[in-house]
Amino acid sequence: MTFHTSKKAYYAAFIGPAVFIYACIIIFPVLYSLGLSFFNWNGYEKMEFVKLANYVRMFKDDVFLLGLRNNLLIVAVSIFGQLPLGFILAYILYRKMVKAQSFFESMIFLPITISAIVVAILWAQIFAPTGLYTTLIQRLTDNPRYIMAVAQDKQLAILPILFVVLWMYTGMYMVIFLASMQKISPSVIESAIIDGASEFQILMKIVAPSMSNILFTTAVFAIAGSLKSFDLIFAMTSGGPAHYTEVIAIYMYTNTFKYYNYGFGSAVSIVIVALSMGLITIAQKVYGFFEKKYE
Amino acid sequence: MTIHNERTTGWRVFAYIVMVFFTLLTIGPLFWLFYSSLKPHQDIIQNIFSFPKTLFFENYTEAWRLGKLGIYSMNSIIYTAIATGATTMLALMTGYGFAKFGYDKLTGFFYKFFILGMLITAHSVLVPLFLLEVKLNIDDTRIGVILPYIAFGLPFLIYLATSYIKGIPSALEEAALIDGANYGQIFRMVILPMAVPVTATMIIYNFLGNWNEFIFVFILTSKTALRSLPVGINAFAGGMSRNYGLQFAALVIGTIPMIVFYLFFHKQLKKGFSAGAVKE
After folding, report:
1. Quick check: A164 and A120 in contact, CB under 8 A?
2. Which of B47, B103, B123 to mutate to probe the A interface, most A CBs <10 Å?
3. For the residues of chain A, what is the DSSP string, one character each?
4. B214 and which of A231, A270, B5, B133 could share a cystine (Cβ 3.0–4.6 Å)?
5. Which residues contact B60 (CB under 8 A, 6 or more apart)?
6. Is residue A114 part of a domain?
7. What is the pLDDT of residue B100?
8. Inter-chain residue contact A107 with B23, CB threshold 8 Å
């Protein structure tokens, strides 16, 4: 064996196993899913080629459209809620405006470790008709007949879930932003302070501009993460009542594993992948646009 | 800095309000959950706020027994240990291959191939993966759960490993090559010892994800003997128990190991989360 073939053999041995597992478990199924999405199949009868019928049916289904709306709301809350809040929290810690920074940081980051299932059941209890939230409002407003009604409202039922999404993940963005701020050279800030820059100027002129790159990355995280939100909603409401809190991932689960429409379920999962890629492309375009403007 | 202090009082007041508010919002519900889990069902119904009159530990023994949480915990430990160990090892090997072997075109292709995987969610492969496992007769087996854990853990860990190993000076390897070491020996004796810091971050990040994973175990297994803690706890969500005391105890049982884990490793965990976004 010559030196070069042995090097190649080692290269193959080092990356081979990971490539193989990854290709079998992720790449092959995605392609398989794409193929399956053009068929009607319940798992044991003969497959029937139906062209785009699954996709057409999906976009005519009100339940799917409601799920799509809810998914997009979760994306919006992630981008316009988690990111700015995480940024504010990070900035406060970065500028050492409070004492015991590491205490606050650790507390706010804590929910990231707790299983989404636990978080879901906990908050479902808090928002239940006889739960903590309703009781708290009853006592505070002295109105024993108050009951939190948003869960029964088709338009608003998703609100508690949006809140829990914020509760769970804001700390993660705080940690990411803080790490990124700590990369700014301290001397830049110090000399700005000596030159008499106000806090607002430091924020807008030094810290914010150096965050533009990280803002794009976190937006991608937020988009990809939002479309993954299955566990939380599954354990909290299972999409109910009456599909009011449906999201696409739950819609896919129901159609595949309850109604055994494997072809249709595959079409839904392809839409999830496409949606994720599409939104990330949009984020890239928006970022590119502002990047150019800034220069 | 004293001159500065006066001008920033407003900021400080604002900062404390924000921080205290967020901390209470995080800790409050957990604190309520913990003390309520020590109240009998009747007391929770009667007064949802009150502290426990006596510490009612029966909730815990009952939840543990009824919910079969012993079996589920054991499975969680098995899945998490094997998947985390295997994913970390495979990612370090791949990271070494990507970082130090050249072959730019091939490496570039495979690297992108893995990075793309970060955007693919578990749900998009669920249907075909389930069908595939049925065909291969590995549905409802431990290996059928562990393989997807590994595959979905790989992209991010490979990203971490590759960027870290790139930073290890090549002079060390070259010296070892000249001394007659082969690439396997270099990996074991030069790369692995040098990569200890990133390995710690990788293990802790991956451990968290595997421990809390729900959907794969839920779909790919049906036997109690094979299911893990999140699935066991999910059973308390619906019809299984209208006993709030039991439900809360089960939630605490699911939370405690992670809070202990967090106390020890939150620094590495922060590193893991920020490493994906912030370039070192």
Report:
1. yes
2. B123
3. --HHHHHHHHHHHHHHHHHHHHIIIIIHHHHHHHHHTTEE--SSS--EE-TTHHHHHHHH-HHHHHHHHHHHHHHHHIIIIIHHHHHHHHHHHHTT-SSSHHHHHHHHHGGGGS-HHHHHHHHHHHTSTTSHHHHHHHHHHT-TT----GGG-TTTTTHHHHHHHHHHHHHHHHHHHHHHHTTS-HHHHHHHHHTT--HHHIIIIIITGGGHHHHHHHHHHHHHHHHH--HHHHHHTTT-STTTT--HHHHHHIIIIIT--HHHHHHHHHHHHHHHHHHHHHHHHHHHHHHHHH-
4. A231
5. B37, B249, B252, B253
6. yes
7. 92
8. yes
* pLDDT digits (tens), chain B, 280 positions: 444 555 578 888 999 999 999 999 999 999 999 999 999 988 888 888 888 888 888 889 988 998 899 999 999 999 999 999 999 999 999 999 999 998 989 999 999 889 888 878 888 888 889 989 998 999 999 999 999 999 999 999 999 999 999 999 988 888 988 888 899 999 999 999 999 999 999 999 999 999 999 999 999 999 989 999 999 999 888 655 578 889 999 999 999 999 999 999 988 888 888 886 676 4
Q: Is the dihedral of CA B81, B87, B93, B95 positive or negative?
A: negative
- Look up the ipTM and state it: 0.90
CATH number at residue A256: 1.10.3720.10
Is A177 within the bounds of a domain? yes
- The CB-side HSE value for A243 (13 A sphere, CA atoms) comes to 14
Calpha distance B42→B46 (Å, rounded) = 6
Mean pLDDT of chain A, nearest integer: 88
**Mutant choice from B127, B136, B191, B252 vs A, greatest count of A C-beta within 10 A:** B127
Architecture of domain B67-235: Orthogonal Bundle (1.10)
Would residue A41 count as lying in a domain? no
A55 in any annotated domain: no
- Residues in chain B with CB shorter than 8 Å from the CB of A170 are 22
**Three-state SS at B121:** coil
How far apart CA A18 and CA A34 sit, in angstroms, is 23
Distance from CA of A128 to the nearest CA of B (A): 12
Contacts of A56 (CB under 8 A, 6+ apart): none
Task: Give the pLDDT score at A254.
Answer: 92
